[in-house]
Amino acid sequence: MIAVENLHRHFGGFRAVDGASLQIATGSITGLIGPNGAGKTTLFNVIAGRLPPTSGRVTMDGEEITGLPPHALFHKGLLRTFQIAHEFGSMSVRENLMMVPARQSGETLWNAWFRRGAVAAEERRLRDKADEVLEFLTISHLADEKASNISGGQKKLLELGRTMMVDAKIVFLDEVGAGVNRTLLNTIGDAIVRLNEERGYTFCVIEHDMDFIARLCNPVICMAEGKVLAEGTVEEVKNDERVIEAYLGTGLKNKVVGHA
């Protein structure tokens, strides 16, 4: 579905992404791992249109999408979530979901004044859709709660729910487990698997929790210093000498081997 070819993103002399090439297959849950500063989030930001690339190419289903803005990619079904959830705190959880679909009838003054029946009918459909999403995510009890009052893990579920309010094809999840307790992380993992298996979502997941990655992801791609180091199953990547060195450093790697 997504092909990244020789992608670079430089900040002055710093090469955050340095010639990365990878593919994300349709229907997969692809894991993206690597030490801090490896370029993972910058790669996400370039693919998702938040940052222009310095050079390189990104395609989606064979169509070039390099440098397209986030709203254009949104309409193509490419969405991303963030390490820190971006909710509208003064609105209810349900309202946060209902506002996601673009081009709603009530957004124009003409419709608001002269097509009130159509606007109300659309709002009912959106409300029903939001309630269906909340039930799917097992957080129906939070529907009327202000989004600012829910926990960090519940906000991650809410972000996932936003992707369900539109026809998402591929979702990029940035550290979905950050600051989330194990119970809620399992709930998030269950939802990702169900969306993948039942609704055909493709995912790419940045995550440091290797148990979470091992449960969900195949393949796993490891980045370091802006480059792709290795790709394969979780076990193959974990046992790759280049990956061990990237995480531990040559000296620590030799020390661990020496005491084995």
Question: Could you characterize the architecture of this molecule?
Answer:
Residues 2-250 form the ABC transporter domain. This is ABC transporter ATP-binding protein. It comes from Cereibacter sphaeroides. The strands form 2 sheets. A 6-stranded mixed beta sheet has the order 6-7-8-3-9-10, sandwiched between helices. The chain has 11 helices and 10 strands. Helices cover 42% and strands 22% of the residues. It folds into 2 domains: 1-86 and 166-251, 3-Layer(aba) Sandwich (Rossmann fold); 89-146, no CATH class. The model is unreliable at 250-260 (pLDDT under 50). It is globular and about 60 Å long. The N and C termini lie far apart (42 Å).
